[in-house]
Amino acid sequence: MAGITGRHMIGEYLNITPKEENAKWGVMGTGFTEANEEMNAQTDSKKYINNASATGSVKSYEWSKAVTADLIEEEEVIAYMADIGRTMKTGGDCETEHVTVHLNKPVNGKDNTFYARKIGVSVAISSFSDNDGEMQMEGELLGRGDIIEGEFDTKTRTFTEKAAITTNPTE
């Protein structure tokens, strides 16, 4: 029987150089105490005259990830996000990309490479607060557009979009 996926098996990466040509994927690890993904399905329903019950459908999603982190500014992702919050950046100045890496779904034949989902995000910091004498930061990553499936190499920290992945038919 398969067990429940442990939280440590879901890797979180944030592009901390969004204005640069090549992404620098920082690890959302040490310091983060929560990173909870919300799909927020936007639904609709309609009742037809020949049915006793309504017919439901999913129209879209409003993806977000609520985050809480201890303010450990030696951690590059925390420093990047804290700067956005402290200076109250808006618009394009708080836009970047996020990758969720499923460490329990390795890509066959590729070392250190796993199934991943990338999405554009806006970093929205809501508070810096006292947590029993230690500072913590809370906020959300707000989804911008659709999820892009692909794979992520955790050693080189590179994301490859599913459409760009080539396979060798002789393997």
Structure write-up:
The chain has 171 residues and is mostly beta strands. Helices cover 6% and strands 53% of the residues. The longest helix is centred in the middle third of the chain and has 11 residues, at 76-86. The model has no long low-confidence stretch (mean pLDDT 94).
Measure the end-to-end span: 30 Å
Average pLDDT figure: 94
Q: What would you report as the Rg, rounded to the nearest angstrom?
A: 19 Å
Largest sheet: 8 strands, antiparallel
Strand percentage, roughly? over 45%
- Summed up, the helix count is 1
Which parts are unreliable, with pLDDT below 50 for 5 consecutive residues or more? Answer: none
Topology as H/E string? Answer: EEEEEEHEEEE
Outline: globular
Question: What tags apply to this protein structure?
Answer:
171 residues; mainly beta; two-stranded antiparallel ribbon; 1 helix; globular
At a glance:
This protein has 171 residues and is mostly beta strands. Helices cover 6% and strands 53% of the residues.
Task: Describe how the helices and strands are arranged.
Layout: E1 10-15, E2 25-27, E3 32-38, E4 41-46, E5 55-61, E6 64-70, H1 76-86, E7 95-106, E8 113-131, E9 134-153, E10 158-161
Antiparallel strand pairs: 1-2, 1-7, 3-6, 4-5, 6-9, 7-8, 8-9, 9-10
